[in-house]
Fold these 3 entries.
Entry 1:
Amino acid sequence: MPELAHIDIIAPNFKRRLSGVTATVARLVPLQAQSIAITACAPEMPDEVPNVHWSRLIGMSRKGPSGPRVWHARRNVEMIVGLALRGLLGKRLKLLFTSASQRQHTGLTKALIRRMDAVIATSAKTAEYLERPATVIHHGIDTDTFSPHPDKTALRAELGLPAGPLLGCFGRIRAQKGTDVFVDAMIRVLADHPDAAAIVMGRAVDKDQAFLDDLKARVQSAGLGDRLLFLPEVPVWETPRFYQALDIYVAPQRWEGFGLTPLEAMACGAPAIATRVGAFEELVKDGQTGTLIDAGDVDQMVEAAQALLSDPVKRAQWSEQARAHMIDHFQLKQEADAIIAIYKNLLSD
């Protein structure tokens, strides 16, 4: 547990349940800690992540070793706590906010953002919803962990997955994520490609259980229960192996803030079929590393999947190009270094 007197940067994450923000903090902070004095402030973090309990914030020194500390918020509640620490408790803080939202902000969020010292947007589209200048920094991934597997056939056997061409869709199972669009499209695609299979991997919370049950019923009705599989959510450290087993990844979301899954899949060599939501248009090079389609359009998804399944040469070419694109533009270290540059500017101001 780090000593706050020696810390310049605090990255809070006040949500206990796994989320995109939790994953972002867990990925970035250990890497950034190699070159700057940073800690997370979260209920739970993996052992390798420097982390302090929120209760220690009240008694921490007014300033850090380099002067005012940087408080890097990623949610409203964390902006509010940063403002309270600075305004009510007299802590010397520079407030930084990262926005991933692609919708009109509420009045509260707008008011909070106006009081930040700097703002980061995770995509150009996200920046368009902000009413003040922001630095665009895309999320990155660990391209060593997310990398192609040397023997995809053996890996599928090890994971208990079908041997033929495999398509996948990972994440929360609910209408917003477009899981129903993926299932409806795969029912049609698998009927025309008897050697192919597809997997849905993730979980449905209680309110979405009926949605999931309906999807499973559609698959059974189509007679595809052994080729369109529903797999439970796995721990984050196991997900790279499932990406590595895929030939094609599908991101069918109807709405998304950013969306890391296509990056992780492409880094593992799986071309992505992705909807034009979130940052996907900035991540997927249409016709080179994957295909962009309209959200909710089953016909377009079917056409895109059919085209790749029917052309192994194109699929192999796009696989190589997808991996190269991730290495060139979306490495986690690139994201970490770009954010550290913002930290240093705030610390020296």
Note: The chain has a mean pLDDT of 94.
Entry 2:
Amino acid sequence: MTPSPLLYADTHASADMLYFGRVEVHDPFIALGVGGKKITVQSALEFGRVKKTGGFDVVLPREKWLARAQELYGPKAGVAEIIAALAAHYRLRYFRVPDDFPASLYVKLTKLGLRLTFADGLMFPEREIKTAWEAGCIREGNRLCTVGYAVAEKILRAAKIKGRSLLYRGQPLTSESLRFALETAIAEQGGNPQDTIVAGGNQACDPHDRGSGALRPHELIIIDIFPRVVKTGYFGDMTRTYLKGRASAAQRKLVATVREAQVSATKTIRAGVDGKLVHQAVTDCFAAAGYVTRQTKTGAVGFIHGTGHGLGLAVHDPGRMSGAVSYPLKKGSVMTVEPGLYYPGLGGCRWEDVVQVTATGSKPLSKYPYNWEIR
């Protein structure tokens, strides 16, 4: 017997819940599948909105089901007892739950006699394959990224070089001020950008350093934007590298090589290809150009992360392209392609775009120029 899906989470914490119900609810709530139908329990606060705008087949009032659970299990009945009451009503004893299902709730439900099995991977495997509508939502997320890049470029062009400083409107240009400007522009157009990376110099050599303090002329600046589209919940994810001033020959070679690696990786992508092979195309390109990846006393240098990951209702959706795991790419999945090189003293560079995997290759879901050197 196939277990029915059971979830208890809010839609900000759980991409699975948002996928299942197609409506945002900020507090944890109950959702389950019964005979192909999607059922949820909602408080009076959310009942009308979820019934009107959500993707559930049945919306039940929490107040009524709490009262029923209290009748069955006593006045201290809560979420677990409501679920047990629902299970009895629908004659269910066996559920499939996501791997991040609340531990305390799991214990309570098993004590109430329900059998729970973990998904051990994807709760909804179909979430990996994006429909044309979903691909459009991701494309919109990437359009929002380009709004940010247009603002960043405008500010970098207007910035003045004064010794070791970049001045914008008479003030030092910082990671914080540039990030605020581009995130504000994205928010004005319906995006929710969080944790945007604007990192220059050696800070850019740590791929997840958000960046702080003054940005310097003649240094590489990595800007990684991954906004959530407020209307749909889907993410965009793009990275561009910039330099205000004049690049050195070594910097130009670094940037050109990363772009060459990205092109090579993209050409390798198609349905059925192991993500390891896509990653290998990148490492081969870097090795041929003489770029070595190694561990040093202060951290790793070179190509120190995977080539790409899935993108959708989560920034890191199902799908991987790295040297660490074997992962055959699936037709219809959406992947980032983001090789990078990082050498303190020289700088860091990353180019990131998004593609949807097809039977014979891939189609782009992002587009923006690679004009990185701004005089």
Note: The chain has nine helices and 24 strands.
Entry 3:
Amino acid sequence: MPPARDSDGSADPDDDEDLEEEAPRPRRPARRATRPKGHRPSVRRWQGADDEDDDEELEATPARRRWFPRERHPVYWRARDSLYFEPLVAVAIIVVLVVSLYAYTQNWPPVYVVESESMQHGSSDVLGVINTGDLVLAQRVPVDQITPYVVGLQTGYSTYGEYGDVILYLPNGGGSTPVIHRAILFLQWDPITSTYNATDLSGLKCGNATGAVYATTGTTDGCGLTGLGASNTLYLYGVGWKSVNVCIPLDPALLGKQSGFVTMGDNNIGTGGCGSGNWGLPDQTDGLSTLVETGWIVGVARGMIPWFGAVKLLLEGNAGEVPIQSWEFLGITVVSLILLAFGIHYALRAEGIEDERRKRPEEDDEDEVEDDEPPPGRGRRFLRAIRPWGHGEEEEDVDAPPARTHRPPRGKTGESRRGRPKPRVRRDSKAKSSKSSEDDDL
């Protein structure tokens, strides 16, 4: 407010003294700009020499200048953030699986698909038995560790629902697709006498004895095991899950002049044996192969993955060979695996496997979404980033704490608590003199 003047236009000296005595006008603190949580400005205001506290704050938190500031700075790069993470993980799992199967079977390829129903126990899928569409692991083992059916019958050793081992072999030593059948008996060829020896049958009941397991025609009491030739026939009783009889003519022209295994599928049952009714049909009498030599054996079935081989048969157009139950079990298994994968994913996520450093930026992002005021636009952020100096006294550092303003007590200066100071009005000196004269007259 301008000082009061006398009638002649001169300023009153007392007024000048009063103006000098008035308290200086307090400086209004700058309003703090509302910024998104977690955002740090690129340009800070100019700090005066007397702002020692602000200088300390700036030294503790150095400014970071960016031409194109982003709203969020990731803590570190994670492999699963890549677009190729899922395909690479899938390939890695397949590679580990194949290498593990090869290490277990010592055979390549380690897995084969069952393409026929010769090993099924009936027309439907039976768990624990080799069915069409199953994947069988072919493990390479020494020949002396292969247990035929007649030996397993004595020791109680069984695999896939029957006694003895199931072997994979190449018919007559050729071809690319192996046959998956059970080893029944090993016959040893004697090239001197051109006969066979069936020593695996020793110890079993034979001939006309009650509960006989085998019989050989043309021998004493039907129990001969050596020197068996074209004039002899070997009978096996109660073989397989259907307890059928098996007839094996010991003719070198039929079996071949070599030592090897008599093989048969568990489901290879039909007419055409050595009599009427149903008989077991070995591969050697059915014309599939001669005696299986040890060099023809690809491996022994040592493990099975059910149902998944049906996909290969479907692609080849042989889906009709697969039992209906196998398709049902396959669908249930695939859905269960998918649900299990999602369950493990969310269970681990709930347990907090995320890094703590990465959780904090994610929590800040959630706070930004919940904030009522939207973040500044891209244009404003760009202009704020390229300004080399502050914008007058109104520019401030949002990271620095607000400066405290020390105000004198209200009663001493007569100033209001907020706003401009209260003006002081003085009377004119002439008015004072006239009033004093009037008092004297009274």
Note: The mean pLDDT is 76.
